[in-house]
Amino acid sequence: MNILLYLLILILGAIIGLKGKLKGNIKNRIATVQNLALLFLLFIMGVKIGLEKEILLSLNTIGFQGLILALFSIIFSVLGVKLVSATILKKNKEVEVNDL
Amino acid sequence: MTFKILAAVILGIITGYFYFPSFMVQHIGLLIDVGLCLLLLFVGIDIGMQGNILTKIKKMGFKVLLVPLMVAIGSIAGAITAGIFINLPFNEAGAIGAGFGWYSLSAIELSKHSAQLGTLAFITNVIREIIALITIPLIAKYVGNYEAIAPAGATAMDTTLPIISKSTDGSIAMVSFITGVVLSSMVPILVPLIMSLGGI
């Protein structure tokens, strides 16, 4: 349910951004409100962490787990792109040749 | 901004630790939901304001979409594999991987499930961004230009874009930007989706 709502909101935002022809002034204000919303949410997330004192005690473990997760994600991503990079490269060379 | 982000989290932790009013606790979920929806609306506007991304993709050829696709598959599969070693259920590990380095959004979404999981998502994706910043120039030099986009994940459109652009060239920077936009749009959908697979 949430996912559909998120998708709808994203699309709604994209349409506003694309069609709205927002001027510099409003753009700046949007950036400010966006940052405030983000900082507020991170503050609330911090509150949740602070309420569960055992999390603060296990920060070492969580840090180690985070490092392992991040490393594997990066290595697998690089390998994944390596599998397809030759294909994309070939295609782009063709485009360049056609442009000449 | 990085400093402000850390300050907001630490200030929140101190507040929660010392004097968060207990009657507010039950409303935290609602607060997060409303805030997230607001944030997503702005993210959508941001993406929309970049102009018609479809035109840019058409210009580069649809094959460039293979880059975000492979980064997405790699990030999620990598995190699930890591989860086996650190004893994390596949849906939780996969959802953290689907943050694609965008630490604020994935962490906030997952903190709805548990503060512990939110913390892990935050730390994982912060570490991913740091490793990306360090390794992108090296990967561009020794592995390849397209591969250099991979560590960046969703940040390939903003925070890590300048480094990718400096380490590679203009056309790769465009692919990087497209990759970042596509991955960023996937985060709010994939994180809750993968998380919900645990119930099956």
Automatic annotation (TrEMBL), chain A:
<keyword id="KW-0472">Membrane</keyword>
<keyword id="KW-0812">Transmembrane</keyword>
<feature type="transmembrane region" description="Helical">
    <location>
        <begin position="34"/>
        <end position="51"/>
    </location>
</feature>
<keyword id="KW-1133">Transmembrane helix</keyword>
<feature type="transmembrane region" description="Helical">
    <location>
        <begin position="6"/>
        <end position="22"/>
    </location>
</feature>
<protein>
    <submittedName>
        <fullName>Lysine exporter LysO family protein</fullName>
    </submittedName>
</protein>
<dbReference type="GO" id="GO:0015661">
    <property type="term" value="F:L-lysine efflux transmembrane transporter activity"/>
</dbReference>
<feature type="transmembrane region" description="Helical">
    <location>
        <begin position="63"/>
        <end position="84"/>
    </location>
</feature>
<dbReference type="InterPro" id="IPR005642">
    <property type="entry name" value="LysO"/>
</dbReference>
<dbReference type="Pfam" id="PF03956">
    <property type="entry name" value="Lys_export"/>
</dbReference>
UniProtKB/TrEMBL annotation, chain B:
<feature type="transmembrane region" description="Helical">
    <location>
        <begin position="5"/>
        <end position="22"/>
    </location>
</feature>
<dbReference type="Pfam" id="PF03956">
    <property type="entry name" value="Lys_export"/>
</dbReference>
<feature type="transmembrane region" description="Helical">
    <location>
        <begin position="172"/>
        <end position="195"/>
    </location>
</feature>
<protein>
    <submittedName>
        <fullName>Lysine exporter LysO family protein</fullName>
    </submittedName>
</protein>
<feature type="transmembrane region" description="Helical">
    <location>
        <begin position="61"/>
        <end position="87"/>
    </location>
</feature>
<dbReference type="GO" id="GO:0005886">
    <property type="term" value="C:plasma membrane"/>
</dbReference>
<keyword id="KW-0812">Transmembrane</keyword>
<keyword id="KW-1133">Transmembrane helix</keyword>
<dbReference type="InterPro" id="IPR005642">
    <property type="entry name" value="LysO"/>
</dbReference>
<keyword id="KW-0472">Membrane</keyword>
<feature type="transmembrane region" description="Helical">
    <location>
        <begin position="28"/>
        <end position="49"/>
    </location>
</feature>
<dbReference type="GO" id="GO:0015661">
    <property type="term" value="F:L-lysine efflux transmembrane transporter activity"/>
</dbReference>
